[in-house]
User: Fold NACHT and WD repeat domain-containing protein 1 from Tegillarca granosa.
Amino acid sequence: MMMSEDVHLRVNCYYGNEHCFNMLEMPTHTWTMMEIFIQYFVEIFLQMLNLPPKLSEFLPAVHLQILEVKETCLMDKAYPKIKSYCQDRGYEFQVVDMRWGVRDESTDDHMVNEICLREVKLCKELSTGPNFVLLLSHKYGSRALLREIEADDFEKIYQAINSEDDKKLINKWFKRDDNAVPPVYVLQPISKYIPDFLSDDSDKKQTAKNLWNEESSQMKEIFANIAKEKLEPDKSWKYIVSITEWEVQLGMLQCFDAHKACVWFKRTISDIGKQKPDKLLSRYIECIGPEDQQKKARELHHKLTEEKIPGILPKDQILNYSVNWSSKGIDPDNKEHKKYLEQLSNDFVKKICKMVDDGIRERSTSEISDPLYEECYLHSSFCKNKCLDFQGREETLKKIESYVIGKSCFPLVIHGVSGCGKTSIVAKAAYLSWQWMNEKAAIILRFVGTTPDSSNINDILASVTLQIKKNYGEDSSIPEDWLKDTKTDLKELIQEFQTSLSLARWNHPLVLVIDSLDQFDPANGARVLSWLPDTLPPHVKLIVSTLEDEEYESFPKLKSMKIPKDNFIAVPKLPDQDVSNIVDHWLAKRKRTLTPSQRQVLSKSFEKCPLPIYLKLSFDEACHWTSYSDKSTTVLQTTVRNSINTLFSRLEVKHGETFVSRALGYLTEARSGLSTSELEDVLACDDEALQNVYSRRPPPIRRLPPLYLVRLKSDLQQYLVERGADGIRVLFWYHRQFIEAANDRYCKIVEKLNAGLAEFFSGTWADGKPKPYTDGSGVETSADRHVTSQPLQFGNSYNIRKINNLPHHRTLAGHLDLLKKECLCNFEFILAKLLTSSIRQVIEDYALAKKKFPEDKEISLITDALQLSQSALIYDPLQLAPQMLDRMAGEQVMLPFLKQCEAISIPFLKPSTEILIKPGGQLVYCLAGHTEPVRAVDMKKNGREVVTCSEDDTIKTWDIIEGHMIKSYDGLGIDPDNVLFIMNDKFILAHYPQRIKGIRQAGDIVYTIELSGTGAAYGVAGKNKSIIAVFENQMAKLYDAETGNLLNTVEHPDNVQFQEEGCVAGSEHYMVIRSQDSRRFSVLNLAKRSFSQFSEAFPGDPKMGQADIEGLVISMNEKFILCTNNISSNIYIFDINSLKREDELKESEPFGNIQKKGYKKNFSQNLHLTYNGNFLYRPSNKYISVKNMKTGSVEHVLEHPADVDDVVSVDGKRFVTRSDDVVIRVWDLSRKEKEAGS
Assistant:
């Protein structure tokens, strides 16, 4: 099978003397034989390169002091144009300068050149388009002083040194490290022997720099002169050529497609040879120092520019410019030079944009644009990376193998604590499954949260189902845009997914692997696992992994399923031999070793904290140890948190405390992570971070030197992950421990960090708008930060990053006015979010804002209006304008917003009369989420949470204070018709045809009580609703509401049948149920476990002789039974012991104000007492009456927009109603009523 490399398009550019920048990165990949790959990609992915993000990345590496003018010219003029050009084509343009802004702290450890070379190599390896741009004139550049030299080479050179002073100098700066494999001599940090190199005193620092330059130049000459004689050419060249040539060699001369991937902007200063040598001229050509060194540099420069480069680049890839020298070098105020710089900028833009177009064109003709293929590839690449360093775990893998090749028809669960190595085990098992199944199985895997489409359960089910069907040739019936159809119903997806599993065959089995169930977005009940089958079809194996914490819901749910205990594999502590093997493997990969005492320190530390993540952190720390490290420095922390803080401390010293704290603070505080270019833009507007970077010299443009992030990412690469967010790939922490540690350390300035993020997502300083700042001299000025534009739309596509992140960060920043202007009182923005996400996400933005700004009337009114309009907006988001116009008509404070609604270009119907309920009245929320009518509702004692069930087969819980769905329970059963909170509100009791299920709120079914008939009556009673009673035939079966175990069976003394689905009321000690003819009732004494005889409710009453009992409730003191019937509106009171009628609560005339509302006397089956017994309430057609039990008077009469099927309340003030529709209505009767049109 042929498959091309999958690559970024980058350009490495060189300026002036020696340094490169890598520019323009975008994916150009060719995918062939896609179907085979999708079927068997686990075998193939180990041979593949990683799939890059869709990114155009520009990585310059330039000495600031050399190319200040030229750099500024391109930064100010060329870069923004190319950035915009790429953005219009769906690419991101990022500038990274590999020399600009290098801190002395970074120079101190001599790592800069290695990082630059690594970036050049990376660009070349990942590119099939333009990958190298060179801006090289007359200067050849200085040689490198290698940070590490192999011991054999070093000792050959050292033995050939004749001068004792030279030997003393080399001995001073180089030490042998036997922890390297093979051993090396290491160049020591500059500050070790010249401490003032890092001094805050500028004079001392300059003196130190001069001393280092003198000694380092002397060492370069020593190595260059002797290496040429004592070493082979393939080794000696590193000591002889300049850094410039080294990087040009790597990035251009060794580039197989340099003729189309590389370009040289060549500048000639025609009279430079006639100029008198001075410091300024030395920036452009070697002219100071020993004559022989100058001569050698010019010879090497001539060979590079006149032979090597022209020998590989065609003429059309070399753009020539000629200028004369000026007393100021390249001077933008010089007329000739100004013209040259303008031409350079124009040519640069034109050439690079052409290369971009060529790359896009090549990509469009060669790639297969298939979202499923890309999703498969991303997960296989992730799996591959996890397998590369995998060692040990043989016992765990054997258990998984036994499952894969065995006969179990249940899922296999890998579980453990955070950082225990679950994902690595799952990845290795996925790879080995191919071998375990004799290379016949379809291996399908998903690592939840690692790609843009793997956090949401809908996306996962859609892609997995489609991949399964493609494997088995059953995809012809699937619409082409099925993966992109965000409206696909979850119920339909679950059915399609579970049906697709049955396609597996004996000669083509299926192994499905889903890692990190706890990483699912909890929306749609993903972690409740209603989509996960209890049992699997033949020839199917399903491996899942999850954290054990109850807060993530998945593990408790898995334990409640029918999965056998043997199918649960807890990730054990790493055996000592595995630990040793892992460390050996890691050391070999790093080409390192440890001294025996250092190895012992590492081993003993792991014993105190035996987690793989701790081992990795400790190993990374130990890799900094050399064989000559003092024992006092070879110390490890004893916890994961302390280890992370030690890492952070080292980064702060190396890269600067302010820069690290802001970079990691923004990354941690970001709602969904940040891409590298986003983080650069955010930092470009943080003047405290910039001031720290530029404390000694102003930058050519007011931006952070991008190499800062390259270096920081390099040091954190093991602990950051690229994951999906809003359709792009962003950086975020890989482990929760890092999130918690970074949050504690860097996110104390919450409002400041969120303000920076909000300004980025709003585009506050984009499009050339200068941001004010105070320079180092205290002068107030401003500068363009060259940040990405943030329109609401890019062409026909919405800016999802802005839409999903701006409201969140404006709110947390405390920017009330801007929050309203840009987001929450901006009709265009609200509509865009409705169209691109959901009403639930829109309301979440308002809920956060309302919590932050509780007194703001505009936010409060729009929040309430949206809550009331949920159902309509779910059906059609374009109903936003008419809904808002009607609901908020007459609100003077909302006039500006309503004018925006009226100005919408989309036609809508506007009624001549206001017809909708207004926000701010008694109707607080209209909660939408069910897709079919709601059948039952119950409320917790706290008055905050309700539970509902619906004809859509789902059960949902709701927060009626905040006004949002808490959780949706799918797949618990078919056709639920009632739900109740039981066991002190810890469980949910759900009634299904012929069965009752006890469900923990985590979503797991604790027990099922089978019913013999389809309509058996049942109810709950006992202390805290701890007893379930099922009434069938002439018998009551009492069950423990916590376990579902049968407690007692009580027979009724009368030969009378209970009514099927009859009216049942319960209290702590009693239950009451009516007879099959609906005219008699009987009391069950729970303490005595005995029934009373059935008693006729209305004997001898001519008016009530044919009355049916409609509603029953037991008084709070358990002395009376309250009863309603189908003839009278009155409430009748019976003694619970004698069953005699004691009193009658007559419906008062005119019954409050209900006559004015057109109320007619109607009768209700549903009669309720509030939890405290103070109020008796019942629905009646479109009205709900609330009677005060202390005064006997009707306290409230609530007019409902539709016939009320049932109502619940615990305090007589906040009510929840259901009707024959999909909406849950929440009412607050303590509010003043606000009618339509008022």
User: Anything to note?
Assistant: The longest strand covers residues 262-269.
